[in-house]
Write a structure and sequence with these properties.
Layout lengths: L7 H32 L3 H26 L5 H18 L6 H29 L3 H29 L8 H18 L13 H14 L1 H31 L4 H25 L5 H22 L3 H19 L2 H7 L6 H29 L2 H22 L7 E5 L14 E2 L4 E5 L15
Antiparallel strand pairs: 1-3, 2-3
Helix pairs in contact: 1-2, 1-4, 1-5, 1-6, 2-4, 2-7, 2-8, 2-13, 3-4, 3-6, 4-13, 5-9, 7-8, 7-13, 8-9, 8-10, 8-11, 8-13, 8-14, 9-11, 10-11, 10-14, 13-14
Length: 441
């Protein structure tokens, strides 16, 4: 599982990612506690609004950032965005009103919307081998999950000695360390491709989603992922501190339980994905989260029961999100990959934009039990749609015809040749293949 770390460029990027994630995790805990200070039992409403702003920034900025940055130096772009995020994090301890939270987090989220897709799209270029890339995806998920565990644990320890506002300093340090490791990473040069018009670069990833069945299924499962995650991220502080009357540290440990369940799934996924399809793993995770959400109103009646429920939720969450990179890689060429990752980033966060306000508003206006049930319904819709839309039989190489090409066109010699102008090869939507085989259009 750890063999990708032998690649120096990937190793530096991985350390940069871990550093930024560790700091971000502490900020997540501190932001929850700040919201509770500002609004008490209605903290979920502030968190839901702040996270909705995050989703709006991600949806609106990611495709434009990808299109604008297509010709920018990768290293300069990533380092600049890390430094912007560090500056915002350093300012967070000095705020005391909800509107200030919203303003500063908007800047942070816009920078992250530009950073994350560019970062993710580089990994397939660094690790072209499918097996190594699969391991790298699990390492990335493991890093995210370790942040979910390590950051709350570290926050719980630090909160015994310092106020939660000081946790934001750890976020700034994390982004600073991330920038240093990006500077020292040997990144692959962008392969030359014919320049495309700006509008085509802006919409190219969305077009891949529209015409690729597995990507439409992936988007449906993203809705299930958002429904489960929103319940945890928005309402943990409400359940732990308002319902159970426990401490800041107890909130941190509950978030760590969710991360622990996700880590467990990430450790086993490389082996599981050798035996099962991405579709089966992701729909299974969505189904598991649906069941956990349905059980929530009757199970989450005590702190120990909530910890167990969050472990199950974390396991299902990781199953839905970790294999996504494999589906994206299979569905794009190297030239289209940055646009596709940006589109995935924007579209998946559109799902979070639905789920976050639902989690916050139903918790604030009714009770967390109502939020459990509404989000269970949303999760179930995503799981069922993903199962139906993503074809059960989904090979890489698909037979198809090119009636628009001459019989001696060099493209027809690629892959396995059939009768006439038919052949088979790994199929992605591009200038030669504008529709999925056997789909109307």
């Amino acid at each position: 599982m750890f063999s990708p770390l032998r690649h120096a460029g990937y190793r530096h990027l991985f350390i940069a990612q871990v550093s930024a994630l560790l700091g971000t995790g502490m900020a997540t805990v501190a932001l929850s506690l700040l919201a509770h200070d500002l609004a008490g039992a209605r903290a979920g409403e502030i968190l839901g609004a702040a996270l909705a702003i995050k989703m709006v920034a991600y949806i609106g900025v990611a495709p434009f950032a990808s299109a604008l940055a297509a010709r920018l130096p990768r290293k300069t772009l990533l380092v600049s965005l890390d430094l912007i995020r560090a500056g915002v994090a350093a300012s967070l301890p000095f705020i005391g009103a909800a509107w200030q939270v919203y303003a500063l987090m908007t800047v942070l989220y816009v920078a992250s919307a530009a950073f994350t897709p560019a970062f993710q799209a580089m990994i397939p270029d660094l690790l072209p081998d499918e097996a190594e890339y699969t391991k790298a995806l699990s390492l990335t998920r493991l890093a995210v999950d370790m942040e979910s565990v390590a950051s709350p644990v570290l926050a719980a320890v630090l909160l015994a000695f310092i106020s939660y506002n000081n946790l934001f300093a750890g976020t700034a340090i994390g982004f600073g360390v991330s920038a240093l490791f990006v500077i020292t990473a040997a990144l692959p040069a962008l392969a030359w491709v014919a320049p495309k018009p700006f509008v085509q670069r802006l919409t190219g990833g969305l077009r891949l989603f529209l015409f690729t069945p597995r990507l439409r299924g992936l988007l449906a499962i993203s809705l299930a992922t958002a429904a489960g995650g929103a319940m945890v991220f928005v309402n943990t502080v409400v359940l732990v501190q308002s319902r159970f009357g426990l401490s800041d540290q107890a909130t941190a440990w509950a978030l760590a339980a969710f991360g622990g369940g996700s880590i467990t799934a990430a450790v086993f996924l490389p082996r599981l994905l050798g035996r099962m399809t991405d579709r089966l793993a992701m729909t299974t995770g969505a189904g598991l989260m649906t069941v956990a959400l349905l059980a929530g109103p009757w199970v989450a009646v005590s702190y120990p029961a909530l910890l167990i429920l969050w472990i199950v939720m974390g396991f299902g969450y990781s199953l839905t999100i970790t294999p996504a990179g494999r589906a994206l890689r299979r569905s794009s060429t190297a030239g289209d990959r940055p646009a596709l990752f940006a589109a995935q980033f924007a579209l998946s966060h559109a799902c979070w934009l639905i789920a976050y306000p639902v989690a916050g508003l139903f918790s604030a206006e009714a009770q967390p039990g109502a939020a459990f049930l509404v989000l269970a319904a949303l999760c179930a819709v995503g799981a069922v749609l993903g199962f139906l839309v993503w074809p059960a039989r989904d090979p890489d190489a698909l037979p198809h015809a090119h009636d628009d090409l001459t019989a001696d066109d060099p493209h027809l010699s690629e892959g396995q040749q059939g009768a006439g102008r038919r052949h088979a090869h790994p199929y992605v939507i591009d200038d030669r293949h504008r529709r999925w085989p056997n789909e109307p259009g």
